[in-house]
Write a structure and sequence with these properties.
single chain; mainly beta; Immunoglobulin-like; 3 domains; four-stranded antiparallel sheet; four-stranded mixed sheet; 2 helices; binds 2-acetamido-2-deoxy-beta-D-glucopyranose; Ig-like_fold; Platelet-derived growth factor receptor-like protein; Ig_sub2; Ig-like_dom_sf
């Protein structure tokens, strides 16, 4: 027993060494090496991420993930991304403004390795990066209010707009204020050299995102006589946004007008046939696609209509 334990320990040590060795070999690296850049308006920055064939640059913010695809007023890309060699990908930020403030990530989706740098472009007029919609979608316990200070010296606090109550949480430079939020309106406040400025308002909207979905079907009857009515309900719990589609016998399909409705934390699709015929016999399959995470599932029931 003891010997076994010892050899397991030995194996683990070897394994740890190997993991360390591998990450040394494949590690992503961003150059220049600074974790944070404070840039003057109109200046430029060239960041290179090397160490992988699969690495990509992404912008780390829920409300503007597509920032790196954006174009300037003249229709030119705002960001230039190019492979300088097969294992290096460069991101060129040209003529920066407050809009470029944020966290830039180099991600290898294959190995899930990530490196990031924060960029700040202080603007005496614009203390907080403006958000187009001021909406925060809440899908977990903690969310981030994207009041991103353009100057890292600004101290940020978060308040409930209606009560002015300060909210406990953590300000993440370049990302926003992370806290447990409710479905109400919040506002951030910045403080710099004794001066105060408020951010725009942010509305929090909760969205339930299930880990999996399990539709189930209930019917008035599964065996019925010709002429009897038939009701088939497909229900999925814990979902607020979903699309239903049905696969049903052709005779029934002609008459079908599925009604979708929601109740507290569930969605339903209902088929009502006032009069059945033998042709209604067969399999009724309800497909559900949840639209936030894209989960999908189905459930089915077999119906027999006797002649
Ligand atoms: C940015 O860095 C890449 C990789 O080192 C280099 O090939 C490229 O010329 C640089 N571009 C500018 C504008 O500095
Ligand atoms: C991920 O990396 C492995 C090993 O380098 C490679 O064989 C595989 O093709 C890569 N997969 C993708 C999706 O790039
Ligand atoms: C932030 O504060 C430090 C120390 O007061 C100062 O040296 C620096 O210039 C300030 N940075 C900006 C961007 O205002
Ligand atoms: C199906 O849903 C409708 C509408 O809510 C309801 O009236 C009916 O009783 C349900 N039928 C079954 C079999 O669950």
């Amino acid at each position: 027993m003891r010997r076994l334990k010892a050899s397991v320990l030995h194996l683990m040590a070897t394994f740890a060494a190997l993991v360390y060795f591998c990450s040394e070999v494949h590690g992503l690296e961003i150059t220049p090496h600074d974790k944070e850049f404070v840039l003057a308006q109109g200046s430029s920055l060239n960041l290179t991420c090397s160490g992988s064939l699969d690495a990509l640059w992404e912008f780390k913010r829920d409300d503007s993930q597509r920032l790196l695809d954006e174009q300037d007023e003249n229709g030119n890309p705002r960001y230039i991304i190019f492979r300088s060699d097969p294992k290096s990908i460069a991101l060129f930020l040209k003529s920066v403004s407050w809009k470029d403030t944020g966290v830039y990530q180099c991600i290898d989706h294959n190995s899930s390795e990530t490196r990031e740098v924060a960029v700040f472009v202080p603007d005496p007029e614009v203390w907080f990066v403006k958000s187009d919609h001021g909406m925060v979608t809440k899908i977990s316990e903690e969310s981030i209010v994207p009041c991103v200070a353009t100057n890292p010296n600004i101290t940020v606090t978060l308040y409930e707009r209606d009560t002015n109550r300060p909210i406990k949480g953590q300000y993440l430079p370049g990302e926003g204020y992370k806290a447990q939020l409710e479905d109400i309106t919040y506002v951030c406040q910045g403080e710099l050299n004794g001066k105060l400025k408020k951010s725009q308002e942010f509305n929090v909207v909760s969205i339930t995102v299930p880990e999996n979905i399990e539709p189930y079907i209930s019917t008035s009857k599964t065996v019925l006589k010709q002429g009897e009515p038939l009701t088939i309900n497909c229900t999925v719990h814990g979902v607020e946004l979903a699309i239903f589609s049905w696969h049903i016998p052709i005779t029934a399909a002609v008459e079908a007008h599925p009604q979708t409705y929601e109740s507290t934390k569930s969605m339903h699709s209902c088929l009502i046939f006032p009069r059945t015929t033998v042709g209604y016999s067969g399999n009724y399959v309800c497909h559900v696609k949840e639209t936030v995470e894209g989960l999908s599932a189905f459930s089915s029931v077999s119906i027999t209509v006797l002649g």
